[in-house]
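can u pls check wat happens w/ PMT
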Amino acid sequence: MKVVVGITGGIAAYKVPELVRLLKKQGHEVRCAATGHALEFVTRVTLETISGAPLYSDLFASGRTEHISLKDWGEMLVVAPATANIIGKVASGIADDALSTLLLAFSGKPVIMAPAMNCEMWAHPAVQRNIETLKGWGIRMVGPEKGELACGVSGVGRMSEPEAIVAEVNNLSPFSSHLSPQKWLVTAGPTYERIDSVRFIGNYSSGKMGFALAQALADAGAEVELVSGPTSLTIDHPRVHLTRIESAREMYAAVTEVFPRCNGAILSAAVADYRPSECADHKLKKNGSEGMHLDLVQNPDILATLGGMKTDKQTLVGFALETDNEEANAQYKLEKKNLDYIVLNSLRDKGAGFGVDTNKVTVISRDGRHTESPLLSKKEIAQLIINTVTT
Ligand code: PMT
């Protein structure tokens, strides 16, 4: 992978040449970007020699938009050490030097931070709030660890060792296989509930969210059973097995058969809660000028059924598509259906939900953690969900 290593001004910067060396040893290409303060701790010559590439540290030096070139080049950005200052800047959207500008430009690709600071600073509510904000955006934190700090005290604040940071880089690499040999089940798309031989009750789901989840899980090494309602989407991945179904009852049968063999399931399909009690085997004719009444019966709740089947070793993730009282309704579904996580989709969020390529979600865990995303592509949302529910 092409990895940009961003260095900020903390004493742990002295470990960065070793980090760069390890990354290169594992076959990654590395370029470095540093703040002015970082260069008080580690020299330009060292970083350029060890990475084999020019260091990016001055926003105006070349007269070119180097932060954009570097963000185009890099496939992943690792900030080590990440000081309270850079964490606060990114959380607040401040871009006032080479590295912070690069960080704001580096969207849609994995970012890892290895925080390092004094333990009182780490414990400060402002820092903790900023960390939660960054995590909510999908930025991965490695450490900090507990141990002796440069200021002489002992506590949480030490930067993780370069080996741990490299492990996380490998973990997040698209070529990684950290979910291997797990098997995951994903549902996608709408269901169609037949009225007669040509008509059905359906909904606007395109399947994009579920297919993105299946792709991201497979990219992370998992075998994926994708059960999808009618959609024009296709997926071509050796680890994804696609079963196409039409109705909620067909989805129920496919899903309950495969779930006992899975490590986890993410149910993103928009399943019809009701179906016509009868389905005519011919096209129903218009009955003069009279109206028509459809008698509806309830479909099985697939997610709740899996909640009842779930063992302690399985992770069950549901979605909640809400228009009002969003959080309370999602929380209710989380508990009632015995889920580990619920992904809340609000139809009040512009650009989120049915059909579009983007989404905005809040992932709520059973123990009350909330991970909120901004509006991102469904691919990035899938990554964020998987990062949250598989760690
Ligand atoms: O497919 P896209 O166009 O990309 O759109 C994505 C999406 C908007 C469909 C998706 O992000 C989403 O929000 N999916 C859930 C839609 C939904 O039906 O939500 P719900 O709140 O009605 O259902 C709650 C959960 O129960 C869901 O996990 C659903 O899959 C499940 N369910 C619902 C009814 C039922 N009979 N059986 C179920 O398993």
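The pocket of PMT is lined by residues 187, 189, 205-209, 248, 267-271, 273, 299, 301-303, 318-321, 333, 345, 353-355 (CB under 6 Å).
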